[in-house]
Amino acid sequence: MSEIEESDTGSVCSASAKRLITLQQLWSQIIEDWRAHERDWTRPGFRAVAVHRFGVWRMQIQHRVLRAPLSAVYKLLFRYIRNHYGIELPYTVMLGRRVIIEHQHGIVIHAYASIGDDCIVRQGVTIGNRYMDRPRDAPKLGCRVNIGAGAKLLGDITIGDDVNIGANSVVLHSVQSSQTVAGIPAKVIKPTVVIPKWEVSHRLSR
Question: What is the pLDDT of residues 66-85, one digit of tens each?
Fold first, then answer.
């Protein structure tokens, strides 16, 4: 179940709320992520997301003694993903469905960040805090946000649905839905045109 809230950015989409899931549901989530990553289990992005899903799932085991072996496995896998692939994705991140980490290296995601469904994160992206005295401030991304390589999203900002963020941009302020931003600091270039699926099918059938 997703949290659906209308924000001042126009977004009505956010990361899935944390809830109790069964082992079968965890497996279904991982299969969905595998499909989103072109059915390639060797891709570092898929592996990072799969470890994140596992990390979230094991926290629902309330008894710390019973959870301890799973936590040890998670920490080992998390450090391997971070140190080997350069993808830092803590289990505390609110991660939506079918999030794609397109490439590896230099990807840092704040522990309190939120990423909606169908977002794309590329190499060199930082989603983090802006001020040292506000360590918990983190960006909140809507759905279908497309983040270019090397982009930096910093501080307590909200990114609406269907936003495109140019490569190497530095985003310091909230962005309305269906916008394209680029630059340092990032500024709106043009609205993003979202074509409904039925219209795409109609065009292709002509």
Answer: 999 999 999 999 999 999 99
